[in-house]
Amino acid sequence: MDRPLAGVRVLEVAQFTFVPSAGAVLADWGAEVIKIENPITGDGQRGLATVLGHGTGVDSAAFAPVVEGPNRGKRSIGLELGVAEARPVLDELIRRSDVFMTNYLPTTRAKLRIDVEHVRRINPDIIYVVGSGYGTKGPDSETGAYDATAFWARGGSADGVTPARAEQSSFMPAGGYGDNIGGLAIAGGVAAALYGRNVTGQPSVLDVSLLAVGAWATQFSVNMALQAGGPLPRFETRTQAACNPLTGSYRTADGRYIQLAMLQPTRHWPEFCKLMGCGQYAFDPRFSSLEALSENIDLAIEIVEDAIGSRTLAECRRLLDYGTGPWSVVQDSWEVGNDEALVVNGRIVEIEDSAGRPQKLVANPVKFDEGELALQRAPKFAEHTDEILRELGFDEDMLTELKFTGAIT
Prior knowledge:
Layout: E1 9-13, H1 20-28, E2 32-37, E3 50-51, E4 54-55, H2 65-71, E5 75-78, H3 87-95, E6 99-102, H4 106-111, H5 116-122, E7 127-132, H6 147-153, H7 157-161, H8 177-200, E8 205-209, H9 210-217, H10 219-228, E9 247-251, E10 257-261, H11 265-275, H12 290-295, H13 297-309, H14 313-320, E11 327-329, H15 333-337, H16 340-344, E12 348-352, E13 358-362, H17 385-391, H18 396-405
């Protein structure tokens, strides 16, 4: 059962990454996803030339990663929702769908008559999904948002990774970072709603906000702050866990970084010292207990810094692999894309672009049974308009009339 949502139809009226990335996951899981795009401009994502300073590839006719990631496996129809002549097409698509997904703001949804009331009049059994910035209730329900604002900044992640007294808060580590995490939440919610409808016969209305996803991601700190009755204090520490030199990031002799996460320092300290050539400290009483480590933490950190900093990444890797303590190389995006664990588990998947050339994409993290995930490329802008309309029963004369009125591309 590697495509558990086969037979499910999803209608997506959304732009950029949040919500479209959910559609991509649902397509990975076997759903048929039809993406409605503006017949002139298309999804705004198609026009993003740079993200965080990096070129997106939209100038390529065959393969643009910024479009492919959140849109692979779908079909695209160019439909002008503001034109009356387009309404019969939209209504028929709604009538044939199990799920309707959008990230448009409430006023826009009402204006286009794609709010839950209008959609449910056409298909009372449809699952209606909204990806919002700040939720469907409250003073910010009409406020637009991106993951940089709602998820990253307001959701607590930016504050959590920004050093004390920094000149500015830290940026997200990748474009669409919160959007893609939120897309997984939406996809999981849709799967649960489909199951619930199957059991109870009742369709759900889902709201997943970027702010709520951000708070969920930082819930450890948020929950601690709520218990404490105020913001958590900032500690000036050189490691991630105070009094534990075997946590945090250390620089190697060749300029790479190693992340240590040995949460039981007294257990791993002797082994680490023996492996890394500083065995004289393995059973030194200054580091034999948590209390002793606390009193000598600066010296302990210097010992670890010297042990790692005097060796190349390859040397550190060879030595640490003999140990039992958790650690990892801090990988760049190229290394992640070629990580053997991802590749062998089918989480980096090869597709064929529109020019017939092989390309690679990151798969969603959920693996069903032992099936091999086969991804299809993202649709070109409005690529399937005529095909979809013919499936809906529109003949050539109707297609010509719809194009003449500007209802379709």
